[in-house]
Design goal:
Length: 58
Amino acid sequence: MKAFLLFENEDFESVKKFPPQGQTLIHDLALNVLFSAMAAGDDFIFKVVNEVLLSGIY
């Protein structure tokens, strides 16, 4: 069984480039604190959380 947790019919595709305002938004809102708490030390989860939460501004 394949669980599609983000999208109904497809896997999550990693984004290769971030929007120009992405780093500014992360800094201004201190999102690294949130990303770190969500990831609990897991580098892969940190990367995915970062990409998923910023995907709305691409």
